[in-house]
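Let us begin with a simple case.
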Amino acid sequence: MKRYCLAVDLVDDPQMIAEYEGYHKKIQPEIHKSITEAGITVMDIYRTGNRLFMIMETEDDFSFETKSQMDADNPKVQEWEQLMWKYQQALPTAKPGEKWVLMEQIFAL
């Protein structure tokens, strides 16, 4: 098992944040399937203010490159990502076009 932590910001608007959370109360079956088929076994998203923090646990052979290609080939995922980008905004440290930014672990107990 591997664990990854990522962050992204939401547009700082209470109505938009509520809409974003509403979409995540019950995601579309095709989106759920795309996540699990990529080898992601656990995905939790937390929010404070307009900052989102995601924890992903994956199978050992998980690859962000493979997941990215799978997403690019899936029209439903592309539709979902386009919709979510309406609510998300890049972190100040993000590269151009980058949404979720992989965080570096700095402590473990």
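The second case is a distinct protein. As before, the sequence precedes its structure tokens.
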Amino acid sequence: MIDEALVAYNAGRVDGAAGLRDPQVAEDPEFGADYRIGMLDGRIAAFHLRAEIRRVLGED
């Protein structure tokens, strides 16, 4: 069960970083919460990456 939760979290993180959302997985009663948390973490990571790129390029 832990393995499936980690897989769902990782899938959410990848989708979040790509700006995607899989509604079927997100609404899954068993692993949807793990997916949604991963998706949020992926979006936050993408935001920080873009902010760092803008900082490096001097576009603050």
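Residues 32-56 form the longest helix (25 residues). The chain has a mean pLDDT of 95.
Keep these points in mind for the review questions at the end of the chapter.
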